[in-house]
Write a structure and sequence with these properties.
The protein has 390 residues and is α/β, with parallel strands linked by helices. The chain folds into two domains: 59 residues, Ribosomal Protein L15, Chain: K, domain 2; 294 residues, Up-down Bundle (Four Helix Bundle (Hemerythrin (Met), subunit A)). Helix content is 42%, strand content 13%. Strands 1-5-7-8 form a four-stranded mixed β-sheet, covered by helices on one side. Strands 4-3-2-6 form a four-stranded mixed β-sheet. Strands 9-10 form a two-stranded antiparallel ribbon. A hairpin with a 4-residue loop joins strand 3 and strand 4. The longest helix has 31 residues. The radius of gyration is 21 Å and the shape is globular.
């Protein structure tokens, strides 16, 4: 199954038992519904309830983006993998401050690990010790006994072993240990930035509240973005993260890529029994699926950022792929097409998973992350988030 991206204006309709995409010139293209994983609408596309009913029947999510490539919302078919047992435990782990903090810390540890692996990878390349091709091998996990569940292990047993008693946690201001790191330093060398990020990551376990933990994660990512000046090819200015509107080409790529990864994570959650509105690192709120935000933190550096680095450093992305005619900087249609192709290629890249004894794509790693979270919530085994080893 594949994701389909509609960048041009037109119409999507159901014809018989298949999809038909019609552009503004009246040209039609049929798509077998069995081949569709998700639909992504970037252009001005007309549709009707007949199509929405068909997508619901076939369990195909539809994601809508505005003219600038920002995520606007999803048509999320009715959930079909219900589990009241899991829902109770998912809410319980959010309500219990200690259990929530433990999950949030593991998510931030994995995010920091992914960031550090990117910096280490490009540090090696700058020194001539790295290679362009990423090696294959076992996914890096620190605990040898941790088992990565397969699809067959996702059924929820009512008699599952319960988790340990909750850890006591208190609400307080951000940890004063954060002041031990100088966040205002300018233009550090790449290796020094790597050490600084590692120093910030070392503060994760000392945090006693999720708000303080998000502060640590934000500082680590801030210094990580400072490292991009050493990673990106010359001529691509990037000094700080600016979101809405993005002020330059690199910020436009980050915003676009992160929005796309959010919908990918949402799609993988939909294929499991998890409820996407209950999260642990990000605060659950109205009009967003915050669990997708939690999971995307782990994979942003490995999927979105690596795709950006490759497109820029190989010269595939050029200034003409961006539009500055309005306030801010955005990808134009050729730029969106190029970047989406790179993201799909990245999501489809496989690595050898020794525990499953088969090759697993980056996209499926996100699904496996959902399964591991389910096993933690139901007391089967502690959650150990994904760690890249390359």
């Amino acid at each position: 199954m594949r994701n389909y991206y509609i960048l041009s204006n037109g119409r999507v309709r159901r014809e018989a038992n298949t999809l038909s995409i019609e552009n503004s010139a009246g040209e039609k293209r049929p798509i077998p519904i069995e081949d569709v994983e998700s639909l992504y609408l970037y252009g001005e596309v007309d549709l009707n309830t007949k199509l929405l009913n068909f997508l619901s029947q076939k369990k195909v999510p539809l994601h809508v983006f505005n003219y600038y490539g920002f995520y606007n919302g999803s048509y999320y078919p009715r959930e079909y993998l219900h589990s009241g047992y899991l829902l109770v435990h998912q809410v319980g782990h959010y309500s219990d401050a200690g259990k929530r903090l433990a999950l949030a810390q593991e998510l931030v540890r994995a995010s920091a690990h992914s960031i550090l692996r990117n910096v280490a990878y490009y540090s090696r390349r700058r020194s001539g010790a790295g290679t362009e091709k990423e090696p294959e091998g076992e996914i890096g996990v620190e605990t040898p006994s941790t088992q990565v569940p397969t699809e067959e292990t996702t059924e929820i047993a009512v008699d599952a072993e319960q988790n340990a008693p909750p850890v006591e946690a208190t609400v307080e201001e951000p940890d004063p240990l954060l002041t031990a790191v100088d966040f205002a330093a300018e233009a550090e060398p790449l290796e020094q930035l790597r050490n600084t990020i590692a120093g910030i990551a070392a503060l994760i376990d000392a945090q006693t509240h999720v708000n303080a933990l998000r502060g640590v994660e934000g500082k680590a990512r801030e210094r990580y973005y400072q490292a991009w000046r050493h990673i990106l090819a010359e001529g691509w200015a990037f000094t700080q993260r600016v979101r809405r509107p993005p002020d330059n080409e690199v910020n436009a790529l980050i915003s676009f890529g992160n929005s796309h990864l959010y919908t990918v994570c949402l799609g993988e959650i939909y294929r499991t029994q998890l409820t996407p509105t209950i999260s642990y690192l990000h605060e659950p709120g109205a009009r967003r699926f915050s669990l997708a935000l939690d999971l995307s933190e782990i994979f942003k550096p490995l999927i979105v950022d690596r795709a950006i680095f490759r497109l820029i450093n190989t010269g595939q992305l050029k200034p003409e792929h961006f539009d500055r005619s309005l306030d801010g900087c955005y990808l134009n249609d050729p730029g969106k097409k190029l970047f989406l192709a790179a993201l799909e290629e990245r999501l489809g890249t496989t690595i050898k998973h020794r525990r499953l004894d088969r090759h697993v794509s980056y996209r499926h790693l996100i699904r496996l992350e959902c399964y591991k979270l389910i096993r933690h919530l139901t007391g089967v085994e502690p959650y150990h988030a994904f760690r890249a080893w390359w």
